[in-house]
């Protein structure tokens, strides 16, 4: 009696169009067939029910095939075929061409004198050559306006630069940058990455800034001919600066994450990690590095011009130091950018019985739609080159192309994962 | 030990202009619900059943074809879609309209376009047809038997003539009527393309509208 009840229930479900979740699970452990209690059903009945369930599944598959006949569109199963809001962090070399290490540095004469008093743009190649682009800018700031001339009108570029970055990077009531190397500092050098190279942010833990020591007889004006890097001076060797994100979680301020800039290298990590040498602050979310002028003076003989109302062009010292590191030590300025990309994945499932014919005009001959290739008759084949994603109104919203034509036939199924980035 | 055939292919999609437009609208305007598959750049006459190396090489010339990148103009993509049909099919569904050309004698004259789909039962019975008139200065086109969900128009190819006013117009439905416009200077020709919205496939017929004359112009007040 129980057996008949089970089979009748199966048939009733078939009439109502309810499909069993999965035929093989009927007799097993999964809760197949909803409310049917199979604990008191003998094996023979279960086998019979299994056969019937298989038959139902086969019939429904056949119905689906017939329903798809003559169709060019297939609806996605919103649950199983579409995976949305997949966030992925993508990193790449920061410099033009997604290069990770910059070894050539150029300034441009097209930058006006009034601009150069505030900052210097650094190109990756000769600015007059097509394809060269600004990679980063260098600036010098002094809280008291020292190191730059006010040209008689109290307009000090170094004071303006210090105030600018104080406003951008420090909390509202902070008046001075404070580094672990020298404490509160009035003298800062700034490396500001070009926004289009930075994408969303600087990839913390993956920049390495090489700096060469300056000549002891440096000119007081950073653009002077006597501003040079030293030759071989064991007391002042070329250093490499990284952030300390490998040993510290940093701090979070109003301007985002802040890490210390320390000596070290990407490959070997922080130099003397138990007692690092601190050179400044890294703001990866802003794409800005702030170097402590006092530390550069102390470790690299920068001899920053801190004379009041004196045109020091200190930012050019930093330029010479960066570019000089490539010349003397063959070191490159390494950096990566980082961005989060939101994607949706669409799983295009093409079953063996689907999409084996084409509306391509070369597929048919004559006016009655006869298939052109006689070998295709009875064994049709088509090639997939393009996947189109449509809305309900059959408007084409996105297109994906395969790298090569994919053969489709009744003997082949295809699973194509289409990734759409937003 | 060989490598297993990896049958899962991952490809990156780009948004079409229409996709960008709907995405910019926000809300649920951008909602991908279905897919279609195309083979626009494949020439099946390259299939070579006489290839000296045998059956595995019949399609080699097609399979080695480098594919061009996707372009964002939705009207130029997926012109030719793959279609699902029974295995023993010998003739593909084709859209027919009974006549290969329409000639309208003068202003106001009209003709009916009643597309059918041959070689398949009930083809395009649900989503109907899209009709594209290549030159809107020649004639008007109206839907006389509408879709159950009128107002929706699938992505269709776009034809732009020398004259910016002579752009194509498209409508979707089951039956259509084309009305001649008044042509003062000279007779004009255009094309009417009818596309099956379910089966794909298209047919094109020529339309001629004769110049207005005192004989065919209705001059009654």
What does this protein look like?
The complex is a heterodimer of chains A (422) and B (221). Chain A has seven helices and 24 strands. In chain A, strands 4, 5, 8, 10, 11, 12, 13, 14, 15 and 16 form a ten-stranded antiparallel beta sheet that branches. In chain A, strands 2, 9, 18 and 24 form a four-stranded antiparallel beta sheet that branches. Chain A folds into two domains: 72-85 and 341-421, no CATH class; 95-334, no CATH class. In chain A, helix 1 (2-15) packs parallel to helix 2. With 422 residues, chain A is α+β, with helices and mostly antiparallel strands. Chain B has 221 residues and is mainly beta. Chain B has two helices and 13 strands; from the N terminus they run E-H-E-H-E-E-E-E-E-E-E-E-E-E-E. Chain B has a five-stranded mixed beta sheet with strand order 5-13-12-8-10, with no helix packed on it. Chain B has a three-stranded antiparallel beta sheet with strand order 6-11-9, with no helix packed on it. In chain B, strands 4-7 form a two-stranded antiparallel ribbon. The mean pLDDT of chain B is 86. The chains are: A alpha+beta (422), B mainly beta (221). At the A-B interface, strand 1, strand 18, strand 19, strand 21 and strand 22 of A face strand 1, helix 1, strand 2 and strand 3 of B. Strand 22 (381-390) of chain A pairs antiparallel with strand 2 of chain B, so a sheet runs across the interface.
């Amino acid at each position: 009696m129980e057996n008949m009840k089970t089979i009748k229930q199966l048939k009733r479900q078939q009439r109502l169009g309810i499909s069993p979740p999965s035929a093989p699970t009927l007799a097993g452990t999964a809760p197949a067939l909803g409310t049917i209690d199979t604990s008191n059903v003998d094996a023979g009945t279960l086998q019979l029910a299994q056969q019937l369930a298989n038959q139902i599944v086969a019939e429904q598959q056949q119905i689906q095939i017939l329903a798809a006949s003559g169709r060019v569109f297939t609806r996605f199963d919103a649950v199983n075929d579409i995976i949305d809001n997949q966030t992925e962090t993508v990193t790449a070399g920061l410099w033009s061409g997604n290069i990770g290490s910059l070894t050539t540095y150029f300034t441009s004469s097209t930058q006006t004198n009034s601009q150069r008093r505030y900052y210097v743009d650094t190109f990756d190649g000769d600015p007059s050559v097509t394809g060269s682009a600004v990679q980063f800018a260098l600036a010098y700031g002094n809280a008291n306006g020292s190191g730059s001339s006010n040209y008689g009108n109290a307009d000090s570029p170094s004071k303006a630069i210090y105030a600018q970055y104080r406003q951008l990077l420090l909390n509202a009531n902070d008046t001075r940058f404070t580094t672990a190397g020298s404490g509160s500092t009035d003298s800062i050098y700034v490396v500001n990455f070009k926004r289009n190279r930075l994408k969303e942010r600087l990839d913390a833990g993956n920049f390495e800034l090489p700096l060469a020591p300056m000549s002891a007889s440096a000119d007081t004006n950073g653009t002077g001919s006597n501003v040079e890097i030293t030759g071989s001076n064991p007391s002042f060797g070329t250093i490499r600066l990284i952030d300390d994100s490998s040993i510290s979680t940093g701090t979070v301020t109003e301007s985002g994450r802040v890490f210390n800039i320390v000596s070290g290298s990407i490959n070997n990590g922080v130099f003397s990690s138990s007692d690092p040498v601190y050179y400044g602050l890294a703001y990866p979310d802003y794409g800005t590095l702030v170097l402590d002028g006092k530390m550069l003076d102390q470790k690299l003989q920068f001899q920053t011009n801190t004379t009041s109302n004196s045109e020091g062009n200190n930012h050019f010292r930093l330029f010479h130091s960066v570019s000089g590191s490539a010349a003397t030590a063959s070191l490159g300025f390494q950096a990566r950018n980082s961005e989060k990309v939101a994607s949706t994945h669409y799983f295009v499932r093409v079953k063996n019985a689907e999409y084996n014919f084409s509306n391509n005009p070369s597929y048919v001959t004559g006016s009655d739609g006869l298939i052109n290739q006689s070998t295709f008759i009875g064994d049709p084949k088509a090639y997939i080159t393009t996947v189109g994603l449509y809305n309900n109104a059959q408007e084409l919203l996105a297109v994906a192309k395969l790298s090569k034509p994919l053969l489709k036939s009744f003997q082949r199924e295809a699973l194509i994962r289409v990734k759409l980035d937003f | 030990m060989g490598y297993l055939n990896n049958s899962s292919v991952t490809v990156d999609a780009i948004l079409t202009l229409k996709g960008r437009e709907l995405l910019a609208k926000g809300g649920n305007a951008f909602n991908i619900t279905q897919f279609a598959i195309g083979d626009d750049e494949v020439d099946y006459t390259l299939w070579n059943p006489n290839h000296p190396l045998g059956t595995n090489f019949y399609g080699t010339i097609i399979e080695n074809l480098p594919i061009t990148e996707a372009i964002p103009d939705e009207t130029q993509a997926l012109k030719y879609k793959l279609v699902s049909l029974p295995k023993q099919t010998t003739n593909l569904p084709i859209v027919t309209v009974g006549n290969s050309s329409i000639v309208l004698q003068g202003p106001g004259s009209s003709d009916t376009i009643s597309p059918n789909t041959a070689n398949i039962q009930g083809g395009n019975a649900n989503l109907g047809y899209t009709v594209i008139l290549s030159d809107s200065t020649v004639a008007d086109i109206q839907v006389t038997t509408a879709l159950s969900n009128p107002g929706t128009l699938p992505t269709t190819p776009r034809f732009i003539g020398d004259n910016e006013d002579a752009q194509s117009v498209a409508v979707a439905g089951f039956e259509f009527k084309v009305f001649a416009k008044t042509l003062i200077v000279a007779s004009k020709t255009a094309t009417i393309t009818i596309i099956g919205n379910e089966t794909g496939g298209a047919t094109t017929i020529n339309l001629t509208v004769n110049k207005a004359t005192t004989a065919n112009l209705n001059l009654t007040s």
